[in-house]
Amino acid sequence: MVELEREGDVFVLTMDDGENRWNTSFVRAFAEALDEVEASEGPAALVTRSSSEKFFSNGLDLAWLSAEGEHRGGDRKVFGAEFMALMGRLITLPLPSVAVINGHAFGAGFMCALCHDVRYMRSDRGFICANEVELGMRIPDAELALFRHKIPMNAFFETVQLARRWTGPDAKEAGIVQGTAELDGLLEAATRRAAELARLGANREVYGGMKERIYGENSALDTPHGAGYLLKHAHDH
After folding, report:
1. 115-140 pLDDT, tens digit each
2. Residue 131: domain span
């Protein structure tokens, strides 16, 4: 389901399960790969890609969720908690991470891409979309918080409320992704950027600690006080 290779300072995690739909087995395979990445020392960065040219990740494994009996997707009861915990781990990964959106990224797949520090998206085809509203589902608070932290406000509303499907060029213009390229140059561009950032992963405590201050408990972005107050009372924080 998931393969992990290392090229110099860059770990390349390849999702290799067709449309890469999320179920418990897929979550655990992804988490196992992160175990190896986090166990490394020194400069390092993570690149996440898909073996499919059409899909980065097509969201939840709905066929698995609606099936009866045993399934290769694993235990349905624990999925929600384990998936959200994995996304929380990914967004606070103590080294730089780059998502290579080489195909459609819907719902949970879009969440996975957003949990990376940097995103590169295919420019010639493919969409990213939070399509829960179209499916008659409410977006959970944790997912809304992720979108709000990662997407500029004008694009945030179009994404979560209007279920806008973003192309690569539109997503870059809106600030959702940081770079675009055609398929044949996409992985190279993302890997090159990851290699440039790998030096920041040498100090995991600082890099991961900064992410916790941005996205973790008592986030500096979510404090009840504004920037002016915090600046005037910096000695208290």
Report:
1. 999 999 999 999 999 988 988 989 99
2. 2-199
In a domain, 218, yes or no: no
CB atoms within 10 A of CB 140: 12
Instruction: Name the residue type at position 45.
Output: A
Provide, rounded to the nearest whole percent, the portion of the chain with pLDDT above 90: 83
Could you tell me the CATH number of the domain that includes residue 122?
Answer: 3.90.226.10
Q: On the CB side of 19, how many CA atoms lie within 13 Å of its CA?
A: 15
- Mean local confidence (pLDDT), 3-11: 97
The 3-state secondary structure of 131-180, one letter per residue:
CCHHHCCCCCHHHHHHHHHHCCHHHHHHHHCCCCCECHHHHHHHCCCCEE
Task: Tell me which amino acid residue 64 is.
Answer: W
Tokens of 111: 């969440």
* Residue 210 covered by a domain: no
Asked if 59 and 130 count as a contact pair (C-beta separation under 8 A), the reply is no
Instruction: Look at residue 203 in the predicted model and tell me its pLDDT.
Output: 97
| Predicted confidence band of residue 227 (pLDDT cuts 50, 70, 90) | confident
**What span, in angstroms and rounded, lies between the C-alpha atoms of 198 and 97?**
9
Number of domains the chain is built from: 1
What's the pTM? 0.94
